[in-house]
Write a structure and sequence with these properties.
This protein has about 120 residues and is mainly alpha-helical. Strands 1-2 form a two-stranded antiparallel sheet. It is elongated and about 75 Å long. It starts with a helix and ends with a helix.
């Protein structure tokens, strides 16, 4: 999950930032009437490089998501079963299998966790 966020935020974010800067540069040249064929070619070449990098990171991102969604669990409650991806499960516990002391400790830590956030 952290790897996905890092790819989205760092790598893809940096490429999006660079593409936006390139767009603004092109717009500035247009407003100054300085946009000639050479400048257009340079901007297009730079943009193609960024788009190639973007595609590489997109492939990496899809692979990370596939790995994350590979594992799942089936939770059964009464007569109903639901499929959950393990990447979405934060914490699982079985309160019916806990003793009174275990329950007190568990809910006590949950209370402390809630109050300290």
């Amino acid at each position: 999950m952290e790897e996905i966020a890092a790819v989205r935020k760092k790598e893809i974010g940096a490429i999006n930032y660079a593409l936006e800067r390139l767009r603004l540069k092109q717009r500035k040249l247009e407003l100054n009437n300085s946009l000639d064929d050479i400048a257009k070619q340079e901007i297009a070449a730079e943009k193609a490089g960024y788009e190639a990098q973007y595609k590489q990171y997109q492939v990496q991102l899809v692979e990370c998501i596939r790995r994350q969604d590979r594992d799942s669990l089936v939770a059964t409650t009464g007569k109903r079963s639901t499929l959950k991806f393990l990447c979405k499960v934060v914490r699982a516990f079985q309160p019916n299998a806990m003793s009174l002391l275990d329950k007190m400790a568990h809910y006590g830590t949950k209370l402390v966790e809630c109050l300290t956030r």
